[in-house]
Automatic annotation (TrEMBL):
Pfam families the record matches: AXE1
Active site: 187 (nucleophile), 273 (charge relay system), 308 (charge relay system)
Biological process per Gene Ontology, one example term: polysaccharide metabolic process
Coiled coil regions, renumbered to chain: none
Source organism (scientific name): Streptomyces qaidamensis
Domain Acetyl xylan esterase stretches: 1-325
Name listed for the protein in its UniProt record: Acetylxylan esterase
SUPFAM superfamilies per record: alpha/beta-Hydrolases
Amino acid sequence: MPAFDLPVTELERHRPDIEEPADFDAFWTSTLKEAGQTNALVSVRPVETGLRLTRTWDVTFRGFAGDPVRAWFSRPAEAGELLPAVVEFAGYGRGRGLPHERLTWVNAGYAHLLMDNRGQGGQYGCGGDTPDPHALAPGGPGPAVRGLLSAADYHYRRLITDAVRAVAAVRGLPGVDPARTVAVGNSQGGGLALAVAGLVPDLAAVLVTAPLLCGIRRALDLTDAGPYGEIAAYLSVHRGAEHAAYRTLSYVEGVSFARRAQAPAHFGVGLRDTVCPPSGTYAAFNRYAELTGTDPRKEIHAYPFNGHEGGDAVQVRRQLDWLEALLDGRRR
């Protein structure tokens, strides 16, 4: 697929206006206040994985509406000191899978929490273990359209709340330095990490690649691929529902979360990405932290000939180097 979005010179200064609802902050303050009324952690159970150099626990924490959300928590087996924690969010249609699937951050010396996606896990990978008991509002079968006609009922209200609660949960786990908690994700996971950065003011860093839910209105005009295609397909049948859908989506717009974030940020983007168009990533990057009165360290890496895979392992290596330098600097 050739490059289809804005030219690079325009992407680098792309700062679109966002139709942000007047009660955006009140909506999320109320949602998170309700979710935070109880202790996040429910259970922490060690599991045998066959890995000698990694210790893993099956974690359950309370997410949206107190619903139990599953996660894998892993640490290097011989680490005795408090470790920085990487909270990772999985992509669209994925669950937490099996505990030995994602070991990069543990091998780099971090504590690692991989959150399960409620009501997902049936499209890719090795499945998930967290149902979504609230998925009964009007909308389509896919997560991107569940409850689409009401912000209160929308799937991503629940999933973003779970993501924020995952940060609270990891900070209560053994051997974690709560002051060095990092949010990481690609695609949907990148959108969740960016939302966490906008809702958790003391996050140590955020690392996102090809984030979903950024520049949503433009993405719906550009692509029929992936989750945006599900939304377009739903609206093609439910004619006249656009206004309600757009209003709901404005409460989960990643650029709005990026404007409120203040943690150091590392971005990656493939310029031929038809799943999460690059203009959305650049919009979030260019408007990052603009409402916070801060000027956090941030950088973006673009891959001109890559699509949704972005920089793949090259980008991961850049993330590892960047985060190590950032956190080592904090220790000094």
